[in-house]
């Protein structure tokens, strides 16, 4: 099978320009005859479908929610990066590129990251033109804030609802194309397999989630924009429906899976409160701009946070990482929180939490605000009041969300937070053109193994999703489709469609006929627990080996004892969920296998066997400077292919945020 | 926060599909923690139903953090339940006490037919957006973002209108099933931005025309929508829509 990253030759900052200058084009008359399937309408899918529709391709778009506007991207809070340097603080395309490669702990492909940084500015322009209401300064120009792992202010935001506003922008562009007839939208549809003809992806089988019917859809090319697989851990910040099914089906049809074990555990989430917990809620990283993280200096502290005096607080991030302080990258911040809690300094009833405190920020902003009004003699109360108003403007919706969930007022007492699974850097392996190892099958957004290496910097996923959809795929897809203009649309009466549909339908029948005793949810929870305990924030050989055995056993149990109520030919959310959990179980095994093989620590992947004396992650560039691209060979059987990573520009060093 | 457990009686709308008639069915749940979310309480009930061999209750949800707009339950006569500025998924069980009876129904509107149990079809909202809820700018057409300064007040107001999550609570709560709050939020967002000016008139006319086509009722200014909107979308947007509509109508007549 072909395995070529297709990185263009030439200087790093010329590669993309050169590529665009020489890529094959499809003329407008031919575009109308070419059909493209876009699965997923998050930032990646909606932007791709809209752009391809505008260009004149015939597009069919799919999502499992009731409207494309509800894709999981909607939940992104903090912001989106771009190298605009509007703040004149020394930012540039190069610096964004450099920060992303370093932040990813030198496990990303340089050429892709450079392209991402190059197109970042055009994304902001496009979104503003669509009417995305980014935050602005009094002069009417765009406002920025900083995010973890960087020392410049390059993050554009819309309060704590950046993802929502960006997605609504892409969604409106998509709806416009739907109205113009270039895109046909299939909501409440779930793709359940890829149809292959002559070793090319030529369509999909999708289940209409309302009627239960299986449908066949042809496309000259298929784009998977189906998001990440963090829900393999059961509890995560992802939406309930986020799943790996589309990517997993593609994997089983020959698409390599890249770096499956690279998972991002986000440091600031609302802690688990009980067994019934169905998901975890993120408190945006932007809060670390202003909030200070601490635990009591005394173990097993009984006093309330507000009663603990300043000198008895351990601001452990500021102590350990003076250069970056509370703004260290996510992986570093998460492990530091775990370390404090493991040592017995955790807070709250479960002792699995640390404080995120806005007291100082409120005072600081209060003084600034009153100072602007010329009030220098304000009382403490007035200062706090003015400060709270500023904090409310910046983070109001997040504070409100926190209060709704916990019943506590974060303006008065510090938030309790703990790390939670948030994002998956791993995903379908793609080349420079975003094509998987299956011809005609592309992966965009979080679904691909992407540009983030072993750790993603905050505000970079939105950037990548929109980069892929608005500015990369419109070029690279043409390079493939230019050779397809002589292929007429293949009717879905072609036997390959019937065969694939039968395989899908057989699997559904098998699932329904198990009629066991345990619910789908209970299996998902058990899988999540294995993954979190043994393939979570810290991993070791013994644990990973155990996890693999346990997952294999869980799989057997699932396929002999799961209970799915309802009917096949009707709406059946439990059946949908069962299919997704079955795929998660298989993915979980591969993730553990990948984590086991990667005997180094890098980014979010922390192997306990590979750490420095002061407990920081220790990379092993000599042996592991590669992308793991796993090839499916049959049940519980994978072959590891390696894409070597060469760093021409950003020379790997041990990451230091001290 | 003090935690407590409770036993509850639930009366839930069950309806097999679009065609069939539905009815309220009664269920009991025990030992529900005050820390659970309302939907987690539904998870507990559904697990119970599945184990007992019954059909679990179908309901829409995804993000469970108040932003996707997918959850949609009418709880004790109120869209999204008793808390203000709140979605169903953000409602927590501390809003209830031991022994309570809770009645849960789907959104009710001709324009939102029930698909199953508590799930409704809100595709009419998408079609209203298709009619004009956008700015016609193809990918690649844009100029530098800062070449277009926008008064912070206008930008903030546009943002507040853009916060609509498209949940449909405004429609569900309105005696006339009017979609005015939803439509006005989009119209107001784009009308307040310089980018939205070129299509300002056609947008409002087309979106309102589509709204009428979709069987939504007329707005009679009861303001119930604003009270139940989880995102605090203000009825001042409706006033703005009316002004926009009037002036667009006048200028196209000329
Ligand atoms: C709470 C939260 C906050 C975040 N905040 C930020 C932030 O501030 N900045 C940032 O850069 N990133 C952030 N992220 C990450 C970022 O939001 C995501 O990585 C990104 O939005 C993913 O976009 P996507 O288009 O790839 O996928 P998604 O938005 O997840 O969309 C997936 C789409 O695929 C569809 N789909 C999936 N499977 C199927 C199937 N089998 N058949 C049919 N359709 C299918 C879904 O319906 C959906 O339309 C955040 C993530 C979370 C969870
Ligand atoms: S206006 Fe409010 S109630 Fe109506 S759809 Fe928007 S968010 Fe929901
Ligand atoms: S589930 Fe997303 S808003 Fe309630």
What would your notes on this structure say?
The complex is a heterodimer of chains A (658) and B (254). With 658 residues, chain A is α/β, with parallel strands linked by helices. Among the domains of chain A are: 266-421, Flavocytochrome C3, Chain A, domain 1, CATH 3.90.700.10; 501-644, Fumarate reductase/succinate dehydrogenase flavoprotein-like, C-terminal domain (Methane Monooxygenase Hydroxylase, Chain G, domain 1, Up-down Bundle). Helix content of chain A is 38%, strand content 15%. In chain A, the strands form 6 sheets. Chain A has a 5-stranded parallel β-sheet, with helices on both faces. A 5-stranded antiparallel β-sheet of chain A has the order 11-15-14-12-13. The radius of gyration of chain A is 24 Å and the shape is globular. In chain B, strand 3 and strand 4 (78-79) form a beta hairpin. Chain B folds into 2 domains: 5-115, Beta-grasp domain (Ubiquitin-like (UB roll)); 122-137 and 149-253, Alpha-helical ferredoxin (Fumarate Reductase Iron-sulfur Protein, Chain B, domain 2, Orthogonal Bundle). Chain B contains 8 helices and 7 strands, in the order ββαβββββααααααα. Chains A and B meet through helix 3, helix 5, helix 6, helix 11 and helix 12 of A and helix 1, helix 2 and helix 3 of B. The site of flavin-adenine dinucleotide has 47 residues of chain A, from helix 3, helix 6, strand 6, helix 7 and strand 15.
Task: Spell out the blueprint of helices and strands.
The complex is a heterodimer of chains A (658) and B (254).
Chain A: H1 15-22, H2 28-31, E1 35-39, H3 43-55, E2 58-62, E3 80-81, H4 93-103, H5 110-130, E4 155-156, H6 162-180, E5 183-186, E6 189-197, E7 200-208, E8 214-218, E9 221-224, H7 245-252, E10 257-258, E11 263-269, E12 292-296, E13 313-314, H8 316-320, H9 330-342, E14 354-357, H10 359-372, H11 380-406, E15 415-424, E16 427-428, E17 441-443, H12 461-481, H13 495-514, E18 518-519, H14 520-535, H15 541-561, E19 562-563, H16 573-597, H17 621-624, E20 626-634, E21 637-644
Parallel strand pairs in A: 1-2, 1-9, 2-5, 9-17, 18-19
Antiparallel strand pairs in A: 3-4, 6-7, 7-8, 10-16, 10-20, 11-15, 12-13, 12-14, 14-15, 20-21
Helix pairs in contact in A: 3-6, 3-12, 4-5, 5-12, 10-11, 14-15, 14-16, 15-16
Chain B: E1 5-14, E2 23-33, H1 38-51, E3 74-75, E4 78-79, E5 101-105, E6 114-116, E7 119-120, H2 123-130, H3 152-162, H4 169-173, H5 180-191, H6 200-213, H7 224-228, H8 236-253
Parallel strand pairs in B: 1-5
Antiparallel strand pairs in B: 1-2, 3-4, 3-5, 6-7
């Amino acid at each position: 099978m072909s395995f070529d990253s297709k990185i263009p030759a030439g200087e790093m900052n010329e590669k993309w320009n050169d590529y665009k200058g020489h890529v094959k084009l499809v003329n407008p008359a031919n575009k109308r005859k070419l059909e493209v399937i876009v699965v997923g309408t998050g930032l990646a899918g909606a932007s791709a479908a809209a752009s391809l529709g505008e260009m004149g391709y015939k597009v069919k778009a799919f999502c499992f929610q009731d409207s494309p506007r509800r894709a999981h991207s909607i939940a992104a809070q903090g912001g989106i990066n771009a190298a605009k340097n509007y703040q004149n603080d020394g930012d540039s395309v190069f610096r964004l590129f450099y920060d992303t490669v370093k932040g990813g702990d030198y496990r990303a492909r340089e050429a892709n990251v450079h392209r991402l940084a190059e197109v970042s500015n055009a994304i902001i322009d496009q979104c503003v033109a669509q009417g995305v209401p980014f935050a602005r300064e009094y002069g009417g120009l765009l406002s920025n804030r900083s995010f973890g792992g960087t020392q410049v202010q390059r993050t554009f935001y819309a309060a704590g609802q950046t993802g929502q506003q960006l997605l609504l922008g892409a969604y409106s562009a998509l709806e416009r194309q739907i109205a113009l007839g270039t895109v046909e939208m299939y909501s409440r549809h779930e793709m359940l397999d890829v149809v292959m003809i002559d070793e090319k992806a030529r369509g999909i089988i999708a289940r209409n989630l309302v009627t239960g019917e299986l449908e066949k859809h042809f496309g000259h090319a298929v784009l998977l924009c189906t998001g990440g697989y963090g829900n393999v851990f059961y509890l995560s910040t992802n939406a309930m429906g986020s799943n790996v099914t589309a990517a997993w089906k593609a994997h089983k049809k020959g698409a390599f899976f890249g770096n499956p074990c690279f998972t991002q555990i986000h440091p600031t989430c609302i802690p688990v409160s009980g067994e019934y917990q169905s998901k975890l809620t993120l408190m945006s990283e932007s809060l670390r701009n202003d909030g200070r993280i601490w635990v009591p200096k005394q173990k097993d502290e009984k006093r309330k946070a507000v009663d603990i005096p300043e000198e008895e607080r351990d601001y452990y991030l500021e102590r350990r990482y003076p250069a970056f302080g509370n703004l260290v990258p996510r992986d570093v911040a998460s492990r530091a929180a775990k370390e404090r809690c493991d040592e017995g300094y955790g807070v709250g009833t479960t002792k699995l939490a640390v404080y995120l405190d806005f007291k100082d920020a409120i005072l600081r902003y209060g003084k600034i605000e009153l100072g602007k009004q010329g009030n220098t003699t304000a009382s403490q109360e007035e200062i706090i009041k003015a400060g709270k108003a500023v904090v409310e403007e910046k983070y109001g919706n997040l504070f409100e969300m926190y209060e709704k969930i916990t019943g506590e007022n974060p303006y008065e007492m510090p938030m309790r937070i703990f790390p939670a699974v948030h994002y998956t850097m791993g995903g379908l392996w793609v080349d420079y053109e975003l094509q998987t190892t299956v011809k005609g099958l592309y992966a965009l957004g979080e679904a691909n193994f992407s540009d983030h290496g072993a750790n993603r910097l905050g505000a970079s996923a939105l950037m990548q999703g929109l980069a892929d959809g608005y500015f990369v795929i419109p070029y690279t897809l043409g390079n493939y489709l230019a050779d397809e203009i002589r292929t007429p649309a293949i009717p879905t009466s072609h036997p390959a469609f019937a065969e694939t549909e039968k395989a899908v339908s057989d699997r559904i029948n098998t699932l329904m006929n198990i009629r066991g005793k345990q619910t789908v949810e209970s299996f998902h929870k058990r899988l999540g627990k294995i993954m979190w305990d043994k393939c979570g924030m810290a991993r070791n050989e013994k644990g990973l080996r155990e996890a693999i055995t346990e997952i294999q056993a869980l799989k057997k149990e699932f396929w002999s004892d799961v209970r799915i109520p309802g009917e096949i030919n009707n709406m059946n959310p439990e059946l949908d969920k069962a299919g997704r959990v079955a795929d998660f179980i298989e993915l979980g095994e591969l993730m553990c296998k990948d984590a086991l093989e990667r005997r180094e620590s890098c980014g979010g992947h922390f192997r306990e066997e590979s750490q420095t004396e002061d407990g920081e992650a220790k990379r092993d560039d000599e042996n592991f400077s590669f992308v793991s691209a796993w090839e499916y060979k049959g049940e519980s059987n994978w072959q590891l292919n390696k894409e070597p990573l060469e760093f021409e520009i950003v020379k790997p060093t041990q990451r230091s945020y001290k | 926060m003090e935690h407590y457990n409770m036993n509850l009686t639930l009366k839930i709308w069950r309806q097999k599909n679009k065609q069939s008639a539905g009815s309220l069915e009664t269920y009991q749940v025990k030992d529900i923690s005050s820390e659970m979310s309302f939907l987690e309480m539904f998870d507990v009930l559904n697990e119970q139903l599945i184990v007992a061999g019954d059909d679990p209750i179908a309901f829409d949800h995804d993000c469970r953090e108040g932003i996707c707009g997918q959850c949609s339950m009418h709880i004790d006569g109120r869209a999204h339940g008793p808390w203000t500025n709140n979605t169903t998924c953000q409602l927590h069980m501390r809003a209830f006490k031991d022994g309570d009876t809770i009645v849960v129904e789907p959104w009710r509107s001709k324009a939102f037919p029930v698909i199953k149990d508590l799930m409704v079809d809100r595709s009419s909202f998408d079609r209203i957006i298709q009619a004009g809820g956008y700015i016609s700018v193809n990918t690649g057409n844009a100029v530098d973002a800062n070449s277009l300064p926008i008064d912070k007040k206008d930008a903030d107001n546009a943002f507040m209108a853009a916060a609509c999550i498209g949940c449909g609570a405004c429609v569900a709560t309105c005696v006339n099933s009017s979609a005015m709050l939803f439509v006005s939020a989009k119209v107001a967002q784009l009308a307040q931005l310089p980018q939205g000016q070129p299509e300002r008139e056609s947008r409002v006319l087309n979106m309102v025309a589509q709204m009428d086509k979709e069987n939504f009722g007329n707005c009679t200014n009861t303001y119930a929508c604003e009270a139940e909107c989880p995102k605090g979308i203000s009825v001042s947007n409706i006033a703005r829509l009316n002004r926009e509509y009037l002036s667009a109508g006048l200028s196209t007549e000329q």
